Amino acid sequence: MSYKNILVTGGCGFIGSHFIHHLLKKYKDINLVNVDLLTYCGNPENVRDIADDSRYNFYKADIGDYNAMSSVLKKHQIDCIVNFAAESDNNKAVSSPVDFARTNALGTAVLLEAARQAGVKRFHHISTCEVFGQLPLKSKSKFSEKSPYNPRTPYNAAKASGDLIAKAYHHTFGLPVTISYCANNYGTHQFPEKVIPVFAIRAIQNDPLPVFKSSGNKREWIHVSDHCSAIDLVLEKGRAGETYNVGTGLEKTVTNIADDVLAILKKPKTLKKIVPDRPGHDSRYLLDSSKMKKLGWKPKIKWHEGLEETLNWYKNNPKWWQPLLSRSNSWK
Ligand SMILES: NC(=O)c1ccc[n+]([C@@H]2O[C@H](COP(=O)([O-])OP(=O)(O)OC[C@H]3O[C@@H](n4cnc5c(N)ncnc54)[C@H](O)[C@@H]3O)[C@@H](O)[C@H]2O)c1
């Protein structure tokens, strides 16, 4: 690893906690700082096993708090930041849109400014395929890194805003920024508000699976460990000022996912229940990830194998998810 002191923000969330485990396992000689505000979906259990690792430090803080961020950057001589911290749920974005602008746009701006003042050598910003808007359902089109931004929900509009500020910090101040746009992630430890954990837990409990009316809408899926290996490669080989799409090409409709979950868990198809669409429900996203492949990245986990591993984990870890259900909009 080219960097020694790495700050991961949002490291108690789903992808951030996987990324921290990925780095600490692979690189013995790094120091890792995790800053997380522990919002309703930030879960210290996700990093409990590394709490005593001498290479690891945790701070409960807001990326939008300039003094707190500056002090962490200085104290730990951070040379690389990977910014996962965000409000990330499209359903919550409909009920509390301002929270999304505060963290995903303003919080990112504050962290960028703290990074500029501290002179960090790399600021990697985690973005999403959703900033590009939606693709027609019946088409073969894909988003490239050069596709225009066209966000349609408060979540992806706030993510797009954060991206644009990050790009401006590169162009205006020369901050070495890279951005990755990733497809929908799945895997263990995902907060039970997103579709796969919701389907998994409901199926395990023999409860109906809520399938949006536009059940043919498609998403591109990637196992979280493949996302982590892509970010790692961008830190090593990516160039400042560049952006990278991270996807697998695997598209699934909501109905496909419900059917796959029910089949793996050996539950009847009759558990599917059609519910009204969420406002602003995008039809389709798909990324052209050839730039990442040229950099040397390849996803490794096959859908069926990754989904089975994920579902088994939810089946075997009710102690992890049971206390979270009361905090999730999907269960109220
Ligand atoms: N989940 C996906 O499918 C997906 C796909 C593409 C991109 N992303 C992006 O990846 C990142 C991580 O997503 P996730 O699914 O792990 O989300 P998550 O909701 O599981 O985790 C987000 C974490 O950020 C923390 N956080 C929120 N606001 C904060 C703030 N102001 N300061 C510090 N910490 C704060 C939360 O406590 C939580 O631990 C996000 O930026 C998201 O936009 C996610």
- Along the chain, the helix and strand elements come as EHEEHEHHEHEEHEEHEEHEHHH
The CATH homology group name of the largest domain: NAD(P)-binding Rossmann-like Domain
Q: Total number of helical segments?
A: 11
The CATH topology of the largest domain turns out to be: Rossmann fold
Q: Which ligands are bound?
A: nicotinamide-adenine-dinucleotide
What is the CATH C level class of the largest domain, in words? Alpha Beta
* Distance between the amino and carboxyl termini: 43 Å
GO molecular function: dTDP-glucose 4,6-dehydratase activity
Protein name: dTDP-glucose 4,6-dehydratase
Organism: Candidatus Yanofskybacteria bacterium RIFCSPHIGHO2_01_FULL_41_53
Catalytic activity: dTDP-alpha-D-glucose = dTDP-4-dehydro-6-deoxy-alpha-D-glucose + H2O
Tell me what you see in this structure.
The longest helix has 22 residues, at 97-118. A seven-stranded parallel beta sheet has the order 3-2-1-4-5-6-10, sandwiched between helices. Strands 7-9-11 form a three-stranded mixed beta sheet. It starts with a strand and ends in an 11-residue tail after the last helix. Strand 1, helix 1 (14-26) and strand 2 (31-36) form a beta-alpha-beta unit. The mean pLDDT is 96. The protein has helices at 14-26, 66-75, 90-95, 97-118, 154-173, 195-204, 224-237, 254-264, 290-295, 303-316, 318-321, and strands at 5-9, 31-36, 56-60, 80-83, 122-128, 177-182, 184-186, 209-212, 218-223, 243-246, 251-253, 272-275. The chain has 332 residues and is α/β, with parallel strands linked by helices. It binds nicotinamide-adenine-dinucleotide.
